[in-house]
């Protein structure tokens, strides 16, 4: 696919504050923006990262609605700046701050550029409406649709006709073909005064919708039908109907829940269905247009854009999220993370991940754990609390199932793996090694990996003793060794 702009890199995921990254983008360079920023929900989400359902805490809180709007305003100003004149902007939010968001967007993008409030009915019922509560169930999100001007891209999307419409409107069946049709009036709307042609047809003289030549064509094609009184109608066939143009009430795409059919659900609590993003991208962009998601979380917008042959840019502040969406692009879209392939338009790249010891010391502990496990090529453990001394697993080549398809994600049924323990501390001590040894004995592992910034002499002595007496290998790996990519031989 050719590059849409010589000034802009696409198929790139940036890790960091989106405000800083957006300032680096040129003016009017993006065709479609979709954002689903953390809602002002005043609660903590429990996040299950990746198909391995690793439970993590995702902080989604602001001190007040004012703080939330103050956080979002400069970002929306930058997003408006980078939007093309023909571009569209979608802001996904819920009831907590939607009314304030609408006022803010009117000020930034202009009231006249507001096109729709799309109501996404994400559930039939919600547990917040139960006996004892004093409000109605909150089952929808709002998606505010703005444009940069009146010259924006828009592709109509049609939904199938309701069964009731088919049964009542297309109730006639053509003999011989069995095609259902309705009878449409062919008299001229507004009559002769509106310029409709007047002539005699089958003994009836009046203003008609079509010229005589077109009426004769419809007659030859068998598309005219006559009533018992001789009145003529046009056959409009059900199988030629495009359907019903999509309205602003979307109740046909449910939230991701229950059985994970197709492997789409990653366990991320605010993950949106792929079908939802595909609809937005199809409606407001064309192939090779640039789609930007500045709060891209687990990467649904990027996957949808890639599948629909759009260019894309993703930004997220979480290193774990960036790694998860990178893995998802690889698994779902079969797109490799490779600098050389990216340069020729056949891969993607991750930028600005915290590849320094200083940055890695500052990120949250669970982010550090995820970084270390994924950097080793491992799979993060299922639980954060009660992980019994094992933060992740490495599966030797040949033992890991396919990345996609029926067997994907069934790692729990395989017993060929090495445990990983991670500690975000200056020096791993003897007690930490003792706990990992107990976990290895309990799980009957013969080899494991321990990651830390450094190891005390006592810890290294214990690792050696454990090998001599138990014949079990613990490989100590420092963050510096991982960053320097000098760990290949130790992973064998």
Could you characterize what this model shows?
The protein has helices at 18-22, 65-82, 98-109, 163-169, 212-220, 274-284, 300-307, 319-333, 339-343, 357-362, 365-375, 430-443, 457-470, 479-483, 488-491; strands at residues 12-15, 30-35, 43-49, 54-60, 83-93, 114-121, 140-147, 158-159, 172-173, 180-185, 198-201, 204-207, 224-226, 232-237, 244-245, 249-250, 290-293, 311-316, 349-351, 379-380, 392-394, 418-422, 447-452, 473-478. Helices cover 29% and strands 24% of the residues. The longest helix is centred in the N-terminal third of the chain and has 18 residues, at 65-82. It is α/β, with parallel strands linked by helices and 492 residues long. The chain is built from 15 helices and 24 strands. The chain has three domains: 12-152 and 246-351, Vaccinia Virus protein VP39 (Rossmann fold, 3-Layer(aba) Sandwich), CATH 3.40.50; 159-240, no CATH class; 357-491, Trna Endonuclease, Chain: A, domain 1 (3-Layer(aba) Sandwich), CATH 3.40.1350. The model is unreliable at 40-59 and 400-413 (pLDDT under 50). The strands form six sheets. The chain has a nine-stranded mixed beta sheet, with helices on both faces.
């Amino acid at each position: 696919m050719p590059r849409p702009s010589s000034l802009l890199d696409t198929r790139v995921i940036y890790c960091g504050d989106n405000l800083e990254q957006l300032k680096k983008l040129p003016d009017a360079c993006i065709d479609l923006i979709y954002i689903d920023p953390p809602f002002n929900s005043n609660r903590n989400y429990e996040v299950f990262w990746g198909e391995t359902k690793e439970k993590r805490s995702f902080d989604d809180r602001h001190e007040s609605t004012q703080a939330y709007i103050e956080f979002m305003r400069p970002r929306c100003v930058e997003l408006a700046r980078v939007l093309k004149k023909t571009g569209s902007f979608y802001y996904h939010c819920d009831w907590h701050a939607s009314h304030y968001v609408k006022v803010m967007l009117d000020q930034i993008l202009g009231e006249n550029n507001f096109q729709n409030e799309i109501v996404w009915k994400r559930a039939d019922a919600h547990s917040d409406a139960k006996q004892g509560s004093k409000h109605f169930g909150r089952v929808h999100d709002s998606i505010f649709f703005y444009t940069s001007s009146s010259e924006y891209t828009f592709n109509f999307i049609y939904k199938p006709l309701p069964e009731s419409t088919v049964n009542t409107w297309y109730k006639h069946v053509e003999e011989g073909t069995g095609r259902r049709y309705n009878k449409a009036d062919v008299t001229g709307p507004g009559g002769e005064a509106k310029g409709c042609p007047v002539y005699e047809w089958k003994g009836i003289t009046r203003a008609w919708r079509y010229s005589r030549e077109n009426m004769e064509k419809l007659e030859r094609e068998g598309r005219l039908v006559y009533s018992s009184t001789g009145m003529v109608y046009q056959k409009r066939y059900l199988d030629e109907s495009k359907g019903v143009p999509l309205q602003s009430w979307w109740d046909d795409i449910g939230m991701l829940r229950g059985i994970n059919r197709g492997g789409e659900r990653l366990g991320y609590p605010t993950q949106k269905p792929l079908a939802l993003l595909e609809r937005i991208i199809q409606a407001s962009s064309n192939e090779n247009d640039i789609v930007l998601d500045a709060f891209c979380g687990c990467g649904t917008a990027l996957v949808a854009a890639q599948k629909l042959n759009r260019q894309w840019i993703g930004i997220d502040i979480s290193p774990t999220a960036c790694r998860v969406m990178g893995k998802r692009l690889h698994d779902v879209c079969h797109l490799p993370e490779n600098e050389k392939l990216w340069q020729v338009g056949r891969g993607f790249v991750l930028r600005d991940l915290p590849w320094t010891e200083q940055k890695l010391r500052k990120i949250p502990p669970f982010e550090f754990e995820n970084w270390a496990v994924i950097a080793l090529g491992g799979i993060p453990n299922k639980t954060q609390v009660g992980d019994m001394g094992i933060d992740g697993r490495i599966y030797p080549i040949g033992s890991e199932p396919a990345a996609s398809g029926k067997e994907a994600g069934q790692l729990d049924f395989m017993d060929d793996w090495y445990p990983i323990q991670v500690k975000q501390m200056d020096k791993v001590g003897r007690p930490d090694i003792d706990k990992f040894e107990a976990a290895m004995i309990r799980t009957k592992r013969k080899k494991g990996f321990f990651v830390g910034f450094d190891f005390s002499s006592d810890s290294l002595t214990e690792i050696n003793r454990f090998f001599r007496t138990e014949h079990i290998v613990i490989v100590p790996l420092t963050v510096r060794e991982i960053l320097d990519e000098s760990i290949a031989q130790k992973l064998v």
